[in-house]
UniProtKB/TrEMBL annotation:
The lineage of its organism: Bacteria, Pseudomonadati, Pseudomonadota, Betaproteobacteria, Burkholderiales. The gene is fmt. It catalyses: L-methionyl-tRNA(fMet) + (6R)-10-formyltetrahydrofolate = N-formyl-L-methionyl-tRNA(fMet) + (6S)-5,6,7,8-tetrahydrofolate + H(+). GO terms for molecular function: methionyl-tRNA formyltransferase activity. This is Methionyl-tRNA formyltransferase. Residues 1-187 form the Formyl transferase N-terminal domain. (6S)-5,6,7,8-tetrahydrofolate binds at S117, L118, L119, P120. One of its GO terms (cellular component) is cytosol.
Length: 314
């Protein structure tokens, strides 16, 4: 089976590895252009490009795939190249560019997307984070037949996993990446027998991209909602609370046992076991923190160099 693969981050790289390990012929990889990264801001290839290069797979990195747009000449060249390959299927995972209908129509079996949600539960850019933030008890992987709408295509294959109450977005990402690789390998072996199931539009939610502006914690909310947000925003961008105007990043927390009766943001207690903060409903026990310019630390270490004697969180 001839395959064109389109993806960019580590999540997609693990899927590329799985497809390659299963003996499929990957004729071409599409990925985002190299970006500056790291302390020296040197140009760095995507995780998918690194994997493709290891296997000697040809790589294309168009800025856009819009044939009639600003980069239309480049898009046309990539389009012609894919048409010449005449792939049986295109596998798309967190690519980051919109595939116009011209591209979707090229492969014999169309384009298959690995989506990290139980579609239609979370469509869009951040399904892992939004599922945790919303307090969902389960999530999973959907193998979807792509169409022009945003994650609106029929689902070919779906598998659920439970969301542990202590898991953060990074950890859940890794679990789903492994599952996604396993499922796309299975789907490629069963393309002739898989039955597309239309999505129920009334159950769809939009998983908007995570913005840094969302990171500030609001202690007037329920303690469980705050704890969920902290898990969802770990590792990016990290939730922030302000103590006496000092921004402190909160990386790990759990709900405490009972309401304190104190106003929201009031520090009820602070010791090596945690910093207990009153919330709009319930209390939050903060377990891992980071002050500006310093390392992330467990609370037992953090409180040795930071006093919580005179102030509250805002």
């Amino acid at each position: 089976m001839k395959i064109v693969f389109a993806g960019t981050p580590e999540f997609a790289s693990m899927a590329l590895e799985a497809v390659k390990r299963n003996g499929h012929d990957i004729e071409l990889v599409l990925t985002q252009p190299d970006r500056p990264a790291g302390r020296g801001m040197k140009m760095q290839p995507s995780a998918v490009k690194k994997t493709a290069m290891e296997y000697g797979i040809p790589v294309e990195q168009p800025v856009s795939l819009k044939i009639n747009g600003k980069y239309g000449e480049e898009a046309q060249r990539v389009y012609d190249k894919i048409r010449q390959i005449a792939p049986d299927v295109m596998v798309v995972v967190a690519y980051g560019l919109i595939l116009p209908k011209e591209f979707l129509d090229i492969p014999k079996y169309g384009c298959l997307n690995i989506h990290a949600s139980l579609l239609p539960r979370w469509r869009g850019a951040a399904p892992i984070q939004r599922a945790i933030e919303a307090g969902d008890k389960e999530t999973g992987i959907s193998i979807m037949q792509m169409e022009e709408g945003l994650d609106t295509g029929p689902v070919l294959l779906q598998e659920k996993i439970a969301i542990d109450k202590n898991v953060n977005a990074s950890q859940l990402h890794d679990q789903l990446a492994v599952l996604g690789g396993k499922m796309i390998a299975s789907a490629l072996e069963r393309l002739d027998t898989l039955v597309p199931v239309p999505q129920n539009e009334t159950e769809a939610n939009y998983a908007a991209k995570i913005l840094k502006e969302e990171a500030t914690l609001d202690f007037t909310l329920d303690a469980t909602a705050i704890a969920d947000k902290i898990r969802a925003f770990n590792p990016f961008p990290g939730c922030v609370a302000h103590y006496n105007d000092v921004p402190v990043k909160i990386w790990k927390a759990e709900t405490a046992n009972a309401n304190s009766g104190a106003p929201a943001g009031k520090i009820v207690s602070a010791d090596e076991n945690g910093i207990v903060v009153a919330c709009g409903n319930g209390t939050l026990n903060i377990l891992e923190l980071q002050k500006p310019g310093a390392k992330r630390l467990p609370v037992s270490e953090f409180i040795k160099g930071f006093s919580f004697d005179n102030g509250d969180f805002k």
